[in-house]
C-alpha cells in the first residue's frame, strides 16, 4: 500500500512538473547533459577498454552508457533532491581501469571477466550504500578529513591525465618508452593535448557549460575535415588509430550473451576482491564529497541516509549491466538549479536520450576521434588538479595543503588505497600535533575568588578570604588523550611551584568529553606528586568510569588522601572545610587566633549585624503584612512546578535551593529572602527550596505588597532595597 501511494505521488509530481514552467528548462538541461555524458562515456570507455580490451570498445561503451541510463533514472526518481543528476564519478572509473589492467587474460575471457568484476563491484557498492542508509550510518561518514578528500580528487585528476596521455600513445608510467616515441605519435598527441588544455582555458574564461559541447563539436568537425583534406578514408583513419575501431554490425548492448559467462575465470576474480572493496570505498568517498558539495552550493540540507538508499538501489540495479558504480554528481545537479530545472524530468530526459543512443547501435561511436576523446579525459583531469591542488593553496593552511600534496603524489605513484591510507595517517598526525598544543585547562581560579554557596559565619569567611589563595582550581576541558594529557599534567605540576604555594588543588572534569588510559596515567602521576609535596587534590565532575579507572591506578595510601565529589559546589565546600580546619589547627592558641581573626573582620561583622538589625526592624514594622510559616527539616519550602504563594523571609533556620539534578545552588540563613519574584504574582517555581533545619519564615503575598505600596510607600521602598541587597549577596551579584 505504501509503495502504491509513493508511486502515485511520484506520477502526480511528474505530471505537475510537465505542465509547469519547469518543463522547458528540464528539456534543455536534460538534452545538453545527455550530450556531455555521451562524450564523457566514450572517453571513459576508451580508457577502461583500452590495450588488450580495445577490440571490445563498442560493447564497453554500451556498458558505461547503460550505467548512466540506469543510475540516472533511479536517482532522478528516488533522490530527495528534484533535479539530481547521477553517474559514474571519475575516481570510480579510474579504479575500474586498475581492475581491468590487473586481469591477466586475453580475448573474450578477459572482457567477460572484467565486466563481471565491475558487476560484482557495483553490486557490492550498492549493498554497502543500502546498509548505510538502512542503519542510518551516514552521519559517521561526514568526518572524512577535507585534505584527504581533496588529495583523493586531485590524485584522481592526476591519474586521469596520465591515462589520457597513454590513450594518445605516450606511456608516462614507462619512462623507457618515452625515449622511443615516434614523430607521428607526438604530433597526434599534440592535437589531444592542445584540445584538452585549450578546452580548460576556454572553460576558465567563459565558465558556461555549453562551451564544452560546442567546442567538442567544432573540433570533431575540423578533425574530420582534416582527414578528408589529406585524402584519408574513414576506414584508413581507423586503421591509423585516429578513429575508434568498431566492428561492423556490433551493437552497444548487451555486452555479451548468457553463454559467455562460461568464460569467467573465477580464480582471477577471487584475486580482484581487494580491488573491488577499494572500488566501493572510492565511490563512498565520492558520495560524501558530492553530497557535501550540493549542500554547500545549494544552501540546503539533504537527508544523507535517504540519498545513500537511493544510490544503493541505483547501483544494485546498475550492477546487472556490468557498469562502474555511480552516485549523485554535484556539478550537474547544481547546474540544473541555476537554470531552474530542479525537477525529476531533467534526469529522465537525460536518461531517455542516452537510452535511445544505447539502443540505436554503434554508428555514432565511429565518428569520435580518439585523440579528442583523450583530450576530453585530459581536460577532466586538469580541471580536478586545478580545483583541488592548485587553487586550494590560497584557502588552506600549510599543513592541510601539505596533506593534499602527499595524498596526490601517493595516489599517482602507488594507488588509491595507499593514498587514502597515507592521507589519513598524515592528517591524524597533524591533528595530534595541533591538539597537543591546545591548553586543556579552560579556567583557573582560587578559593579567594570563588566560594561555595554554603552560608558561613563571618569568622570562617574571613579565614577563606585570607587563606583561599592557597587553594587552586583548574577546570579541564575537551578530550584528554596521549597528545594532550602529559602536557596538561606538566602544567599542573608547575602550578605546585607557584607563589603562593598551593595546599589544595581542585580539578574539574565537567567539560571533559572523554579520555584514554594515557590521560588516567598522567593524572595518577600528578596526584602522587601532589601528595608527596603535601598538597590535597580534590576532583569533581568526573564520570564513574574515570573515577573507577583512577582508583585502580592509585596506591591505597594515595587514594585515601584523594577527595572526589560529584559537583563543583560540594567540592569547593569540602575544600573550604579543610582550609578552615587547617587554619584552626595551625593558628596556635585558640584565643589569640580568634582575637587576631576578630580584628581582621570587624568591618564585616559590623555590616552583618547592621543587616540583621535592619531585618529585625523591618519584620517588626511589617508584622501586619506578613504571615508566619514553619517547616520541618527536609520539608519543601518551595516545590518545582507549584505556584508560589509569595515571597518568604527566613526568620531563623537554614534552607538550600537545588536544581533538578540535586546540585545546591544557594544556601539561605536567617535574614535571607526566598523567591523574591513571588511577591509580584503566583508564578510556578523552577527550582526546589528545602529546609535543612527547623525553619520559620514570614510570607509576603502579592496582595500584601499592594496594600503596603498604597498605605506606606516609604516603608515599601525600604523593603525593596533590603531585598535587592540580599539578592546581590546570596546570588553572588555585584
Question: If you had to describe this structure to a student in words, what would you say it looks like?
Answer:
By secondary structure, the protein is an alpha+beta fold. The chain folds into three domains: 35-168 and 257-361 and 371-428, no CATH class; 441-598, STAS domain (Transcription Regulator spoIIAA, 2-Layer Sandwich); 614-730, Jelly Rolls (Sandwich), CATH 2.60.120. The protein is 61% helix and 10% strand. The strands form four sheets. A five-stranded mixed β-sheet has the order 3-4-5-6-7, with helices on both faces.
Short note summarizing the structure:
It contains 28 helices and 15 strands. The chain is an alpha+beta fold and 734 residues long. The longest helix has 28 residues, at 107-134.
Blueprint (SSEs and pairs):
Elements: H1 2-18, H2 23-48, H3 57-78, E1 86-87, H4 90-101, H5 107-134, H6 146-167, H7 175-179, H8 183-206, H9 211-229, H10 234-239, H11 266-271, H12 273-298, H13 304-318, E2 327-328, H14 330-338, H15 344-359, H16 370-390, H17 398-413, H18 416-436, E3 441-446, H19 458-467, E4 471-480, H20 482-495, E5 504-515, H21 517-532, E6 536-540, H22 544-553, H23 556-561, E7 563-565, H24 568-586, H25 590-600, H26 602-621, E8 627-631, E9 636-638, E10 647-652, E11 655-658, E12 664-668, E13 673-674, E14 688-691, E15 695-700, H27 702-711, H28 713-730
Parallel strand pairs: 4-5, 5-6, 6-7
Antiparallel strand pairs: 1-2, 3-4, 8-15, 9-14, 10-13, 10-15, 11-12, 11-14
Helix pairs in contact: 2-3, 2-15, 2-16, 3-13, 3-15, 4-12, 5-12, 5-13, 6-16, 6-17, 6-18, 8-9, 8-16, 12-14, 17-18, 18-20, 19-24, 20-21, 21-22, 27-28
